[in-house]
Amino acid sequence: MTDLRLLVPVSESVTLRNTVAYAIRHALERTDETEGAATIHFVYPLSERPTLDPKSEETTVADTLLDRVTVWTEEDIEDDAERVTIDTAVIGTEEYLFSPVDYANALVRYARTHDLDVAVFDPEFSPLGTTPLLPPLEAEVRKAGLDVEEAPVQRERRSPPLVRRGTVTQFLALFGVSYLFYLLLAGSLETYDLVTGAISASVVSVALWQVSLTSPVRPVRAGKQLGRLALYLPYLLWEIVKGSLHIAYVVLHPELPIDPKVVEFDAAVWSSLSITTFANSITLIPGTLTVDVSQRRFTVHALTPTTYEDLLEGSLERAVRFVFYGREATEIPTPRERMNDGDENT
After folding, report:
1. Which residues make Cβ contacts (< 8 Å) with residue 86, sequence separation at least 6?
2. Beta bridge mates, 91
3. Domain co-membership, 135 together with 179
4. Quick one: 126 and 192 in the same domain?
5. Buried-most residue among 103, 133, 149, 333 (CB within 10 A)?
6. Assigned domain for 307 exists
7. Same domain? 98 vs 195
8. Does pTM top 0.70 for this prediction?
């Protein structure tokens, strides 16, 4: 029985998500073969000069990225959590990392402290931005005695094809969603509605199954997300009711106590669907309006102090994370806790 102990350095990159998925997949396959356990340490090497401020901008970026990695690992592990242990850490906080040797020393020191024997690198790992660092860094880590592996992932296309190969599972998933949506709008289960709904869903599925659902459908994960979505909808409806009552109070108040404000913040949601859900939920609640979304940067117009305070307290964002990433993702800090000085614009 042999245990697998991996060190995975992380930085913001287009292939990071696939690298995390590869590390988890590799660990699960190894535990299947050896009946051992696996431990994966995701580490963020901090490249800034040491300061007395423990909550510097770079530290906040590191913590946010590691939170995202944790959510991804929980998605990929699913029901095999007992087989793989996940740890995250920010390293190099007490020194100034500049050269490949500096980074290699920090990584090797961490690996030896935690008894790790293999370093898996993201092919786009670049903690210094555009400065090429990976080849000399891998050489230095290998020279120090660690096994080095580069995750076999490809860089995502900048302009992916609109139409891709679809599967029967994706077709059936799109048909089911379209059919349920039609019946929900019809509000009836009469024979006419059942028949016309099936015809409409078939037309939609044939036309869009290679466009809408181009990612692999995982029935277990999709079922869990649908179950959490069923809990989210009543919560969203309650927030809409509360927002409506609040705006009605403001409108009827003799002094009209409004204080319009534009708030900008980075949301801790990462997939296109979760970002869209969060943006639309904000707009559906009276008193707030999503003005713009750029990647994860949200620009929201809030009508009163209560509405933007509620937004920054993060209950709605936490609920959206719960739908897409599970209960553990709700522990990520709120937008207010993540915001740096000057991020809130008025």
Report:
1. 39, 40, 42, 70, 73, 77
2. 45
3. no
4. no
5. 103
6. yes
7. no
8. no
